[in-house]
């Protein structure tokens, strides 16, 4: 089972890992990837309803991570309380959480990994990490193009954008 940790601002994969399928594998892999992140800044983690368990939320908070987990209120009380849900960032995190599916979609469609041809956890993990790195390169290209577009349209001037011919007519749009 493949697990991915994505950065919210850019949509880039920070960590990718493969584990054997199991009942707690997703939550354990998430905690392992979070514990390997460096830095001292407080972080948030967006996740789906499967991560809304008291032990996972407590472990995230112990790591200095604020869990923005979709609340699972079907027949039970959610582990996410009002301290988290009252902030505007909670709703935004849940919307951005869907971006991770673009990486998995690219993995299946473009990288041809709908069904892996490798056997063994180490080989599949290496293949998965390589595919996620390639997915990051595709995402980096679109991030760079988007940044260049905004810099040109906003009049900031993107050094090199006109020189390499990406946006030859942007100056005309800005009246320059």
Summarize the structure in words.
Helix content is 47%, strand content 12%. It is of the alpha+beta class. The strands form two sheets. A two-stranded antiparallel sheet has the order 1-2. The termini are far apart. The model is unreliable at 155-176 (pLDDT under 50).
Question: What keywords describe this structure?
Answer:
176 residues, alpha+beta, two-stranded antiparallel sheet, two-stranded parallel ribbon, 4 strands, disordered C terminus
What's a concise summary of this model?
This protein has helices spanning 25-36, 54-62, 82-85, 88-96, 100-109, 121-153, 170-174, and strands at residues 2-6, 13-18, 43-47, 65-69.
Mean pLDDT metric: 76
Content of β-strand = 5-15%
The Cα radius of gyration reads 20 Å
Shape: globular
How many extended strands? Answer: 4
- Compute the separation of the termini in Å: 53 Å
Q: Which structural class matches the secondary elements?
A: alpha+beta
SSE arrangement, N to C? EEHEHEHHHHH
The low-pLDDT segments are 155-176
């Amino acid at each position: 089972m493949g697990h991915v940790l994505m950065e919210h601002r850019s949509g880039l994969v920070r960590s990718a890992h493969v584990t054997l399928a199991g009942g707690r594998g997703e939550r354990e892999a998430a905690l392992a990837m979070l514990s390997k992140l460096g830095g001292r800044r407080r972080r948030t983690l967006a996740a789906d309803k499967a991560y809304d368990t008291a032990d996972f939320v407590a472990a995230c908070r112990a790591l200095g991570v604020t869990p923005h987990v979709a609340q699972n209120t079907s027949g039970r009380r959610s582990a996410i309380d009002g301290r988290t849900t009252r902030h505007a960032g909670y709703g935004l995190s849940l919307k951005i959480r869907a971006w991770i599916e673009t990486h998995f979609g690219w993995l299946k469609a473009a990288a041809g990994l709908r069904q892996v041809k490798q056997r063994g956890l180490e080989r599949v993990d290496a293949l998965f990490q390589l595919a996620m790195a390639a997915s990051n390169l595709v995402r980096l290209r679109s991030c760079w193009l988007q940044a260049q577009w905004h810099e040109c349209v906003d009049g900031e001037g993107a050094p090199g954008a006109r020189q390499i011919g990406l946006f030859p007519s942007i100056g005309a749009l800005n009246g320059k």
